[in-house]
Write a structure and sequence with these properties.
Blueprint lengths: L2 H26 L6 E5 L6 H17 L3 E5 L6 H8 L7 E6 H10 L11 E10 L1 E5 L8 H10 L5 E4 L5 H13 L4 E4 L3 H9 L5 E5 H9 L4 E5 L26 E7 L4 H14 L3 H9 L2 E3 L4 H22 L5
Parallel strand pairs: 1-2, 1-3, 6-7, 6-8
Antiparallel strand pairs: 3-10, 4-10, 4-11, 5-8, 5-9
């Protein structure tokens, strides 16, 4: 073998290795294809509205499609469990509500996932306004009047929710417990379906997220009896909180982004940074505000701590209210 032949082969081998390295580097660049964000609730609710606002901005920032995939069912536990088992490559993510992530495990004997072990927290995303609404013909106009009416007629009035095990359901149960009243719970397949039937007069009451109800409220098709949140919400500044009537009552529903456990740390860090960047944009803040939501800024570590603290809290709520999903 001549020196020239040996040199040529070495040059060829080096070129092949270089090309392979370049190809690998191109493949490793994240994201190199569309990302799917699973929303474990039906379209039309708070989680869906938040996901679509944030997904659009992330798509612009990342230069790839970010697709929202609604998969409702079993209080969000079915889709949450399926996402936990998805490939941990950063292309299947979960944008979920506290109800599905930390309440579901307390309600279901076998939720199909472990909220701590099966997920890598990415970042908090938003909080949403929640309200107790009624059909305009309902005889009560305030929380105090509703409580008095319900006490005088135990079990007579129904309250619609987005489904068994959802946040709407749990808040309704908490309200009954705190007020000492009894309402009939009617679960629907999603917030939009529940709101539609209250608007239609089939059910008099419902706990609704503002994204699901605000258009009906502004059109006069639903009336607000009280705000669920601990503080009044910017979208309805004149609406009193339920806590102003029932002392100590109040919740701050949150929504956050998670990845399957084992997702590479650089990808999680990149996604956290992109979410933080998205929440700084005025158009994102404005779009969230129009549906009664606000940015919830924080790190992956802060989200992990929030999950850890909320799990025992909601377990106590489920036990104290006797809430079931049968």
């Amino acid at each position: 073998m001549t020196f020239q032949t040996t040199l040529s082969r070495r040059i060829f081998t080096a070129a092949v290795l270089c090309s392979a390295a370049l190809a690998a580097g191109a493949q490793d660049k994240y994201p190199s294809k569309p990302i799917t964000v699973v929303v474990p609730q039906a379209a039309g609710g708070a989680n869906d509205a938040i996901a679509r606002v944030v997904a659009q901005k992330l798509s612009e920032q990342l230069g790839q499609g970010v697709i929202v995939d609604n998969r409702p069912g079993a209080g969000g536990t079915l889709a949450t469990g399926a996402t936990a088992r998805a490939r941990n490559d950063g292309y299947t993510l979960l944008l979920t509500a506290d109800s599905a992530h930390v309440i579901g495990p307390a309600l279901y004997k076998n939720p199909g996932f472990d909220p701590v072990k099966d997920f890598a927290p990415v970042a908090p995303v938003a909080t949403a306004g929640y309200v107790l609404v009624a059909h305009p013909s309902f005889p009560a106009n305030t929380v105090a009047e509703m409580v008095a009416l319900a006490k005088a007629n135990p079990g007579k009035y129904a309250i619609a929710s987005a489904g068994n095990g959802t946040l709407n359901h749990l808040i309704g149960e908490m309200l009954q417990k705190a007020a000492g009243i009894q309402l009939q719970h009617i679960p629907y397949k999603g917030s939009a379906a529940a709101a539609t039937d209250v608007v239609g007069g089939q059910v008099p009451l419902s706990v609704q997220s503002l994204p699901s109800a605000i258009a009906f409220i502004k059109a006069g098709k639903l009336k607000v009896l009280g705000v669920v949140n601990e503080k009044r919400v910017a979208a309805l500044p004149d609406a009193p909180t339920i806590g102003e009537t029932i002392k100590g009552f109040g919740q701050a529903p949150w929504y956050a982004l998670f990845a399957p456990a084992g997702t590479p740390a650089p990808i999680v860090a990149q996604l956290q940074a992109e979410v933080a960047r998205a929440l700084e944009h005025k158009d994102v803040v404005d779009k969230l505000a129009t549906v009664g939501c606000e940015p919830f800024k924080g790190t992956a570590a802060q989200l992990a701590a929030l999950v850890q603290s909320d799990l025992p809290k909601w377990s106590r709520v489920v036990k104290d209210t006797g809430a079931t999903v049968d």
